[in-house]
From TrEMBL:
Its EC number is 2.3.1.29. Residues 43-382 form the Aminotransferase class I/classII large domain. CDD domains: KBL_like. The keyword Disulfide bond does not apply. Keywords: Acyltransferase, Pyridoxal phosphate, Transferase. Belongs to the class-II pyridoxal-phosphate-dependent aminotransferase family. It is an enzyme of class 2 (transferase). It comes from Deinococcus enclensis. It holds the Pfam family Aminotran_1_2. GO terms for molecular function: glycine C-acetyltransferase activity. This is Glycine C-acetyltransferase. NCBIfam families: gly_Cac_T_rel. It comes from the Bacteria.
Length: 394
């Protein structure tokens, strides 16, 4: 007899509950800010990806309102039929100029960007070599292709070279890596990875979801940080939902990349175009990050202070060098309990366990933003010290 839907749901949820892995998201009752309101409580927010404070920024909201009034609530069609508004193409030229690439295309999320770009480029007979800690969207995107898929050890150029040498092909060869790794907060050694890729004639594909707006001049990204922004053999993709405060994804690179994606990227071909208000907010974000260097200065000042104080207290932050600051608690139940206790102290910081991170490496992932004040961070550090000592972590 077939398994019923009720039995499947009950079994799966019970398994998650018994393992201490069942997730019940908290609900924000105020805008996404450095201080917000969650489940009826005023809290310091260390849980968001709102690096530059753009999610509730007045200039982004004003541009969104302007585009809403002028262009309407929605695009009304997929881009290839009747949904391409002039503002879409204007924004894509803005991204290409910011990224110093020959072309750029906007898609609907960072996740679908990886599906669309990898699916459009990779064919049977091609070889793709992926960092073992790459984001789930890369893993899922690669599974949808017919390319030969191999993995190299995390951020290890020597192992990448081994894999490339052992797997010769006449097809396209692609090396895929995150720019900044979202769980550990470390940066891919792109200078070494690109050098190895070029040795084998490979394209380097960088998902810079957590690097855009954070790394490089004016937040131009990890690729720029390492000096590869004008390279036609480097593809930059990412999300517009983190530092940029909105939603969507982008792909930027070779001058012909955009045209191929328009014709082959399935998320682009079969999804209604981005809403005008979103385009307006994102265009304003790109303008603002280039006009106001103090945003990135505050982001990095806050990051350095917070990390230094966590280290002084004795916490393990896994060597993170970016605003992503994991604090390790071991197993998932300990991380979840720490998150609950921090919330009781007025700090919103979410615990992460398996399968999001490896077993034994459960953590709370903190993200410091440009909007946090020193008082916000000192309150958070005081709470961390109290909770860490109570749980025997420090």
């Amino acid at each position: 007899m077939a398994t019923s839907l009720s039995d499947r749901l009950s079994t799966e949820l019970a398994g998650l509950r018994d393992a201490g892995l069942l997730i019940s998201p908290r609900v924000l009752e105020a805008p996404q800010r450095a201080r917000t309101r969650v489940d009826g409580r005023a809290v310091v927010n260390l849980a968001s990806n709102n690096y530059l404070g753009f999610a509730d920024h007045p200039k982004l909201k004003a541009r969104a309102q302007e585009y809403l009034e002028k262009w309407g609530a929605g695009a009304g069609a997929v881009r290839t039929i009747a949904g391409t508004l002039q503002i879409h193409e204007d924004f894509e030229r803005q991204i290409a100029a910011f990224k110093h690439t020959g072309s750029a295309l906007v898609l609907h999320s960072g996740f679908t960007t990886n599906q669309g770009v990898l699916g459009a480029l990779l064919q049977e007979g091609d070889l793709v070599v992926s960092d073992e800690l790459n984001h789930a969207s890369i893993i899922d995107g690669l599974r949808l292709t017919k390319a030969t898929r191999k993995v190299f050890r995390h951020a290890d150029p020597a192992d990448l070279e081994r894999v490339l040498r052992e797997n010769p092909t006449d097809g396209l060869v692609m090396v895929v890596t995150d720019g900044v790794f979202s769980m550990d907060g470390d940066v891919a050694p792109l200078d070494e990875l690109v050098a190895v890729a070029r040795k084998f004639g490979a394209v380097t594909y960088v998902d810079d979801a957590h690097g855009s707006g954070v790394m490089g001049p004016q937040g131009s990204g990890t690729v720029h940080h390492f000096g590869f922004e004008y390279a036609d053999d480097v593809i930059q993709v990412g999300t517009l939902s983190k530092a940029w405060g909105g939603v969507g994804g982008y792909a930027a690179g070779h001058g012909d990349l955009r045209q191929l994606l328009i014709n082959r990227a399935r998320p682009y071909l079969f999804s209604t175009a981005m809403a005008p208000a979103t385009v307006g907010a994102l265009a304003a974000a790109l303008d603002e990050v280039q006009a106001d260097p103090s945003l990135m200065e505050r982001l990095w000042d806050n990051t350095r202070f917070f990390k230094a104080e966590l280290h002084r207290l004795g916490f393990d932050t896994m060597g993170s060098v970016t605003p992503i600051t994991p604090v390790v608690f071991g197993e998932a139940p300990a991380a979840f309990e720490a998150s609950r206790r921090l919330f009781d102290e007025g700090i919103f910081a979410v615990g992460l366990g398996f399968p999001t991170v490896p077993r034994g490496k459960a953590r709370i992932r903190n993200i410091v933003t440009a909007e946090h004040t020193r008082a916000d961070l000192e309150q958070a550090l005081s709470a961390y010290e109290k909770v860490g000592r109570a749980l025997g972590i420090i």
